[in-house]
# Entry
Amino acid sequence: MESLIVIVVGVLYMTGIYLLLNRSILKIVLGISIISQGVNLMIFASAGMARFNSPIIGANEKVLDLANAVDPLPQALILTAIVISFGFLAYAIALLIKVRNTADTDDVDEVRFAE
Amino acid sequence: MTDFLLPTIVFTVLTAFAPFFVARLKDRAGWILAIGPALFLAVLLKSAPGVLSGGKLTSSVSWISEVGINFSFYVDSFGLTFASLVCLIGAFIIIYSGGYNSHYHYTTRFYVLMLAFMASMVGVVLSDNLILLFVFWELTSITSYLLIGINHEEEANVKAALQALVVTAGGGLVMLMGIVMLGNIAGTLELSELIARGEVIRQHPLYFWTVICFFVGCLTKSAQFPFHFWLPNAMAAPTPASAFIHSATMVKAGVFLLFRLTPVLGGTEIWFRVLTSAGAITMVLGALFSLLRHDMKQVLAYTTISALGTITMLIGVGTEASIVAAFVFMVAHAFYKGSLFLITGMVDHGAGTRDLRQMGGLRKLMPITCTVAFLGVLSLGGMMPTLSFLSKELMLEAALHNHAVEKILPPAIVFTGAAFLAVAIRLFVVPFFGPLKHAEGAHVHEAPLSMWIGPGILTALGVFLGITCAGFGKEVITPVYNDILHGHGHELHFHVWHGVTKSFLLSLTAYAVGVALFFMRRRIFAAFEKVEGITKFGPEKGYDLFMGSIYKVASFQTRIIQTGYLRHYMMVTVLFALLMIGFAMLREHTPIPAFEWEMSYLHEYGIALMIVGGCVLAILANRKLMAIVALTMVGFGVGVVYVYFSAPDLAMTQVLVETLATVMFALVLAFMPPFRPLGTKRQRALNLTVAAAFGTLMSVLTWISFKLQASESISSFFAETSYLKAHGKNVVNVILVDYRGWDTFGEILVISIASIGVVTLLAHSVRTKKGAEVADG
# Structure
């Protein structure tokens, strides 16, 4: 699965960047969303794509056996990242509506002149 | 030094509450605010006997002592005399401002700035550490800038203020380089220690550049040729500010530092040449222009430039006699020049003009002003028995007894003295005598007590000290002179009457020429009018060209860099990231492990296909529904990855968030216009290429991170302690809420801020939309 995820991460980044370079403001917001998925997946992959147990300590155990469970640290980092990027996306969408209402266009090149 | 604590606190509090006093007391606020400098003066005078008999007050608080920067003060007799002058003149000027400002806007701001300036100026003269001195130095530049431009509705004032700031603060920055070099050479930044290391410093190869940097700093600040042009323009400031900052104190900071550095950097060939020539040129040019101006403030501004030139020149000559002459002249000048500015303000206040061609006969209407002016011009003209006369005598003596300059400087000094006398006569005779030029019944009135008391006392002091110069010389000038030159035991004797010496005869010549210049003034004006065009090519032209080129370069590079297209910025960012990461990898020869294809389960291919498919759809999307579908495919695809690879918390969060995001997007899309193809095909092809390159790079990096075990993971700590110490079995949750609790707190904060932002944006945009139709909506 590692080789597969490497390609998926690359494709996510490529799509994100391509959309960010777009002139349509909606596609830019789409790009923000997709590139953050790419970032999360990249961090996730850094722990290795092993099919182990979840990082939850079993009922009768006191410590997590890292030999049989995935690394909990990247997951904690991503959990924060998902929520933050959601906040970011919500704000971007609100901005989108604002721009649409005030500048009356969805082309960022035109927004430039509609001050 | 603990004595200074109380006045400092009182000063600060008074400054802070200045708006309150001004609001309550109006014109009388000056009397209250003057308590600050007056109290400071009292403490200075209290410690004066000890300091003048050779004691030194020091105080040092460690600041950034690792690099030799301390909050250290040092009071010797020179600093004490200078600080006393600042406080004395400052107190009178604050009182004076009360009367003057009754016709003026921005009164509150004016007081606060004046007091702030005064504090900075005292800081300059009492600082021991050069960096601290620099801080105060630049503070005086900044407060001066704000005061020149205080009437900021006038464009000319703003321009003059900026010019003064650029020249003096710019010079200050050059001086900072000098300070750093000096600190490196000498191993200390404390002035009190530097004085003893002059020998080492002058031998050092960096001495030349150090001294040049200090020259730039001091000569810009003290308005010396070729940096003198800012000072006449700075007369845009209110008259009390001009009197204080641009005549009595700030412009003397430059010469003050030159005095201070004489034992450290002085006595060399370059010191002598640069200072003597710059000073002499400034002295003569200033004197010349003072003869040609008609605005009283401009006339005084040029005599100030000339006087500063005189001091610089004398410091450059550097003999014991010239240093003494320079110091005495500086004190004399501080007493009379500030006062003359204040008298100008009184005339302006009473008669409504400062133009010498439009006034006359004010003597009967303004008798007190006339008397004070008489005392002032007595000093300006260098008449016996003022302190100013004594200083002129000392100056001539010093110049005559130095072989290097005895041919050039005495005539220059005589000319300057003559010009000063001509100006003095003009400033006194023209406004106050002759026929009254104001229409009968014009509102000409005498200045109030608050306005004449300061100049009255200061000019009287100038005369008084001249008469008592024997005692003043013994008690004050001798210790100051010893402190400046770092010498001991040298006693100076002064007398008002020297007998008929060569220098006295030269003084008489100067008087005669001065009177002649006064009577020839109309012819001089007429001659000057013919050649006035030449003055356009002064150093100010260079300044204008310099500033103009800055604007040109700025607008040029703004046009190039700031295109205003978001995608250009985006493109530059991406390309830069690509370049930097690529460059780093090439430079470090990062090994890239060979890519090998690993077999995966069928459902894994399915997941990957779902995400990649979503991506392709997002790129191709030409309808709004397609965009939503693409986003959902990617989001839930990644969610499924989390499910399969043992991350239940992530999966849960991802699914929730993606659901919400999809709903939000669907709602927004209703507002948006349909997609239309934007940009050319070539543009899109270029974008895709760059994006593909970046995607590939990220793939490579991810692959490297798989194969590379750079260092040991800290996860074992979490795995071992999660339950035993934090009592939680879900390690991911424990990390979030316990080990990295603050991080999560920050995350909550971010979400709160984002939601506030969303609400604000949406509320506002809804209002603007409805606002057109419903006024109260």
